[in-house]
Write a structure and sequence with these properties.
This protein is α+β, with helices and mostly antiparallel strands. It has helices spanning about 15-25, 70-80, 85-90, 110-120, 135-145, and strands at about 1-10, 30-35, 50-55, 60-65, 95-100, 125-130, 135. A hairpin with a 2-residue loop joins strand 3 and strand 4 (about 60-65). Helix 1 (about 15-25) crosses helix 4 (about 110-120) and helix 4 (about 110-120) packs antiparallel against helix 5 (about 135-145). It starts with a strand and ends with a helix.
C-alpha cells in the first residue's frame, strides 16, 4: 500500500538535493538521489526525485514530486480547513511524498524523515491525507516521535 504526504509551501525554489541528503544524513539515514526516467536532469530545478535510503539495514525509497498547486486546490483546502496556514493560502508549491508502507500499513520512518526534511527546508506545512490533517513542523516531529 502507498502512503502519501503533502508539504505545502509559499517558497518557489525547491530545496537542493544536497541539502536534502545532508539533513537526512544528520537524522541517521544515508541517502542517494535519483531522477525518475524522463525527469528533469538539472537537480537544482528538480520537479521529481527518488530518494533511496537506508537505516539500520533497511532499504527503502520515496518519490518526491514538486507541483504548482492550482487555485482550485487552494480553494478546496480553504473549504476543508477553518484556519488555513499562510503556507497553504499563498502556496507556490506543494511536494507530494509517496512511498510504500511498512508491513503494518504505516509510513516508514524514512518516509516520515523525508517529509520532515522537505517541510523544514521549505518552511512548509504537512498535510496527511490519511488522517485529514495539517501539521506545522513541530507538530509533525511530535507525530514522528509518537510512532
Amino acid at each position: 500500500m502507498k502512503q502519501e504526504f503533502i508539504v505545502w509551501t509559499n517558497k518557489t525554489r525547491p530545496p537542493s538535493t544536497a541539502d536534502i541528503t545532508s539533513a537526512l544524513a544528520a537524522a541517521g539515514f544515508s541517502c542517494h538521489v535519483q531522477v525518475p526516467q524522463g525527469g528533469e536532469q538539472d537537480l537544482s530545478q528538480w520537479t521529481s526525485i527518488r530518494l533511496d535510503g537506508s537505516a539500520e539495514g533497511e532499504l527503502t525509497s520515496c518519490l518526491v514530486t514538486a507541483v504548482t498547486p492550482s487555485s482550485e486546490n487552494i480553494r478546496q483546502m480553504a473549504e476543508d480547513y477553518e484556519n488555513l496556514p499562510f503556507q497553504v493560502k499563498n502556496a507556490a508549491r506543494k511536494y507530494i511524498i509517496t512511498a510504500d508502507s511498512d508491513e503494518y500499513g504505516q509510513p516508514t520512518l524514512f518516509q516520515l524523515r523525508v517529509v520532515a526534511t522537505i517541510t523544514a527546508l521549505t518552511h512548509g506545512v504537512v498535510e496527511d491525507p490519511q488522517e485529514s490533517g495539517l501539521m506545522l513542523l513541530d507538530e509533525f516531529e511530535d507525530f514522528i516521535a509518537s510512532t
